[in-house]
Amino acid sequence: MTARSTRRTTAAQSRIAAVGAIAVAGALLLTGCGDQTKDKDNGGSDTTETSAAPLAAQLPKAIRDAGVIKVGSDIAYAPVEFKDDSGKTVGIDPDLADAMGKQLGVKFQFENGTFDTLLTGLRSKRYDIAMSAMTDTKDRQEGIDSDTGKKVGEGVDFIDYFTAGVSIYTKQGDDQGIKTWDDLCGKKIVVQRNTVSNDLAKAQAKKCPANKKLSIEAFDNDQQAQTRLRAGGADAGSSDFPVAAYAAKTSGGGKDFEVVGEQVEAAPYGIAVAKSNTELRDALKAALDAVIKNGEYDKIIAKWGVEAGAVKEATVNGGK
Prior knowledge:
The structure is a single chain. By secondary structure, the chain is of the alpha/beta class. The protein folds into 2 domains: about 40-165 and about 265-315, D-Maltodextrin-Binding Protein, domain 2; about 165-265, Periplasmic binding protein-like II (D-Maltodextrin-Binding Protein, domain 2, 3-Layer(aba) Sandwich). It has helices at about 10-35, 60-65, 90-105, 120-125, 140, 195-205, 220-230, 240-250, 280-295, 295-305; strands spanning about 35-40, 45-50, 70-75, 80-85, 90, 105-110, 130, 155-170, 190, 215-220, 235-240, 255-275, 315.
C-alpha cells in the first residue's frame, strides 16, 4: 500500500473508511491465495508462480505477460533432461528451470525436439531459449557450422550453468582395451548427431591410420546410440560425462555399460538465447545467480549426483 497524508474526518467518514479498508484487505487476501497456484503442462515442468517473485520485473514484458518461457530441449538425455515412467519431464535442467521460475514468476515450458534443430527453432522464435545440456562454444556463439566452418545464421548468447567433459563408455566387461580416444582407431563408435562427442569422433577419425579407420554412426538422440551399443552394433559410445555415468549406473540395472578412461574437453553447458534478446538473457543470468546464492542450485546438483560439474556463478559466453 502507498503512504497517504493525514486529514481530519467526521465520524461517518471514519466508519465508511473502516468498511472500505476491510473490503480492500479481504480482496488482497483472496488475491494472495489465488497467486499461490501451480500450473502443469504435459510436456513441461511445474513452476510455482507468485506475486512475490523478486526478479519478475527484469523479464521482457511479452514473456512476463504470457507467464511462460518456451524451452527447446532434446528430452532424451538422462540425467540432464528425460521423461520419467509417468511421462513427466525431469532431470537437472527441469529442476533448475523450476527454481529459476520461482525467481522470475513464470513457468518454463519444455518442448521436445531433436538436438540438431534446437538452435534453428530458437532463430525462428519457436522457442524463447534452448536448454538441453548444450555446450557453450565459440562456433555456436557466432552461428558457425562446426563441420563446414561456414556461417549458418545469427549466433546465440549463452548463460553458463554447469561444466561437463566427454566420456567413452563400452559394454560392461568388454572394453576391448579402450581407454583413450586413440584406442578407438579400428573400432566403431556410436554418438548423438551434432554433439561434442560427434565432433571429437570426427577429429579422431582423421588421426587414425588408413589400416585402422574409426567408424562413426550418429543418431538423433543418445538413447538410440545406447540401444545400438547394447545390441552389439558398435564397440563403444560417447556422451557427456553425466550422461555416460548415469547410463552406466542405471541401464540394465547397472549391468549394460561401463565408463572407460578419463573425461576430456571439459566445457560449460549454457542456456542459449537469441543475441537480440539481451533483456531475457540478463534476467536468466540474474535468476540463476539467485538460485546459486540461495542454495537451491547445490541441492539440485547433489540430487542428481553431479557435484563435480557445479559452478559458483552464472557466466555469459564463457565457452571457447
